[in-house]
Amino acid sequence: MLDTNVLMHDPMSLFRFAEHDVFLPMITLEELDNHKKGMSEVARNARQVSRDLDALASGSMLDAQSGIPLAKTGHREAAGRLYFQTTHFDIRLPQGLPQGKADNQILGVVQTLRETHAGREVVLVSKDINMRVKARALGLPAEDYFNDKTLEDGDLLYTGVLPLPADFWDHHGKTVESWTQGGLTYYRISGPLVPSLHINQFVYLEPPGAPALHARVTEITGATAVLRTLRDYSSPRHAVWGVNARNREQNFALNLLMDPDCDFITLTGTAGTGKTLMTLAAALTQVLDDRRYSEIIVTRVTVPVGEDIGFLPGTEEEKMGPWMGALDDNLEVLARTDGGAGEWGRAATNELVRSKVRIKSLNFMRGRTFLNKFVIIDEAQNLTPKQMKTLITRAGPGTKIVCLGNLAQIDTPYLTEGSSGLTYAVDRFKGWPHGGHVMLARGERSRLADFASEAL
Predict the structure, then answer these.
(1) Angle (CA) 283 284 287, round 5°
(2) According to the model, what pLDDT value does residue 312 have?
(3) 183 and 309, same structural domain?
């Protein structure tokens, strides 16, 4: 039996239970009807579920007792049937649970189904943790909806970085072919390591007392792979808008951000690892200095703690202002990098930078196409996979999209590390020749912030 929140979280969930039968109580249909109005993702999903139910119910005039087949034509053979609650259930719940509440009515239906279908296993599927706790307290089986999870364990997420074994040169040194082109060194390697590599993955080897190797996988052909050494963005002469890489992963990230051939980049990491600062620095360099993109577009999910975005005064950009404190903080840091410009010079630079940064709300992204833009999606861990798809498909010719997020700070209800849209994007774009991912490991904010993240 499905809780309403499962249908509103994934409108295709009806068809994702393989050979199992699905039961919908009438209160679920009532809740869908109550949530169908509006422009939010939940409202769109409610409308999509209603359309699917209408198509299923109108396809045949079957007896309600025999159910409606859920198999989609040409999709799967073994599929269950859909049943609706068609009779009044005499719901008997403990005294402390209000009878009028929708969640409690659903629990009552589960209880009655277990009694009337004693030979079958009845399981409540819900995204609501408290609902599952209440069900188990009443002795009713309840499970989370798992089909939306990209990964079972967040620790299995692709990091984009692979340390080479310490004996790499001992085993591969004689068979490695190397050449120099454009000031960078290329290595063609073969062996058991190659199947575990992905295009645009970074590899490193830092043997004690010997030169370190930091490289990026640029090509995989059969049993061989090509590694290319990196530009060193930790060197002051390679500073990006006055910003240098402070650690290995930041250098990897800047190599991706500054690569015109990389259209989609995801950066994950805890607070203070430099995700937003490096991305803004790379964006400003490529918009103002290189003229590679026409402007920077910044957006993020507005998960409110208090009032919704609609209650804030002003235009779309002014409404988004309070949500963009991190952007303002980083722009302030970048404005200080030019020490010789003087106060007037810095003021002029600030004005120029602000004119090239556009702040957009996710609410108005549908139907848009971004041409030749540098798009930054901040707090991307709060996006659902469907919202992530909606945003990425806005990209027109010449546009680069960068998704930033910390998977340990998910604020959206019903999302977890395994089901976040950011996890989904990292997993699906893994190995794509025009995409890249780096998990930033070390915080570089301050000694106070570093100690606090460990001690508190």
Answers:
(1) 85
(2) 54
(3) no
CA distance 152 to 139: 26
CATH number at residue 331: 3.40.50.300
Phi, psi of 2, rounded to the nearest 5 degrees: -100, 135
Do residues 161 and 223 both lie within one domain? yes
Of 110, 109, 103, 105, the C-alpha closest to 131 is 103
Does residue 305 surpass a pLDDT of 50? no
Range from 31-40, 155-164, 194-203 that averages highest in pLDDT: 194-203
Residue indicated by tokens 């679920």: 28
Torsion over CA of 247, 283, 330 and 412, rounded to 10 degrees?
-90
Average pLDDT, the chain: 84
Residues 109 and 176 in one domain: no
Counting the structural domains of the chain, the total is: 3
Residues 317-376 pLDDT 10s: 555 555 555 666 777 777 665 555 555 555 656 677 777 888 777 766 777 889 999 999
Using one digit for the tens of pLDDT, what is the confidence trace for 401-445? 999 999 988 888 788 888 899 999 999 999 999 999 999 987 777
Burial environment of residue 6 by CB neighbours within 10 A (0 to 12, 13 to 18, 19 or more)? buried
Count Cβ atoms below 10 Å from residue 31 Cβ, excluding itself.
20
Pairs from 128-135 (Cβ < 8 Å, separation ≥ 24): 128/3, 128/5, 128/103, 128/414, 131/3, 131/103, 131/106, 131/107, 134/97, 134/103, 134/104, 134/107, 135/107, 135/110
Phi, psi of 240, deg, nearest 5 = -105, 105
Identify the CATH number of the domain in which residue 217 sits. Answer: 2.40.30
| Segments forming the whole domain that contains residue 421 | 239-455
Beta-carbon contacts of residue 348 (< 8 Å; ≥ 6 apart): none
Q: CA-CA distance, 369 to 302, in Å (whole number)? A: 21
Rounded-to-integer distance, Cα 317 and Cα 314, Å: 8
Residue 91 belongs to a domain with what CATH number?
3.40.50.1010
Is the domain of 286 the same as that of 423?
A: yes
pLDDT digits (tens, 9 = 90+) for 363-410: 667 778 899 999 999 889 999 888 899 889 989 999 999 999 999 888
